Amino acid sequence: MALFDSIVTEARGKFDIDDKANALLSVLLAMISDKENGGFSGFLKSFSEADLGDLASSWVNSSANMPISYEQTESVFSEQTLKEMSEETGIDYQTTTFATAFMIPHIIDELTPNGEIPNERGLLTMLGGSLSEIGMSKTTKIAPETVNQTGIAATADSSGNDENAVLSILFPLILVGILIAVSYMVLS
Fold first, then answer.
1. For 11-59, what is each residue's pLDDT tens digit?
2. Cα–Cα distance, 141 to 103 (Å, whole number)
3. Do residues 68 and 101 make contact, with C-beta atoms less than 8 angstroms apart?
4. Summary count for the chain: helices (H), strands (E)
5. CA diameter of the chain
């Protein structure tokens, strides 16, 4: 988790969320790396679609990170998605929204150290150790079919079947693990 240690530590203290900061980081990383929604590029595109492209660009570039407000966070992620994130992490809605607004610029900044968006392999390599260390077995219940027009999860699973929602997240994470293992074997 070394890549995100300072972000998690600061979020814990700033929002008084203790280990729940790891759970929120886990949810956000799952959203960022969700291939079905365009992966990292798709995640960043959602900010452009919400007219916040310049804001997101500041996190990728080597310039200072511009902050994202509570209202802007709600406009990108939607109230429903933030409620689901709140339920999944055990953090109240308001704190989830503020903590997400704090964490996202820092996470994106860490994932783009050279001012470039990593390709899928590069992202998986960077996230590989972090995903397992923060306990990705506690995955978000936000299913791919709950994605709104911006590529961010927006509504609850209409089937009402939590098992399908968990499987829809767990399966891609297993694939990520396999891809990471294969890439380490190939690169070694």
1. 999 999 998 999 999 999 999 988 888 889 999 999 999 999 999 999 9
2. 20
3. yes
4. 9, 0
5. 46
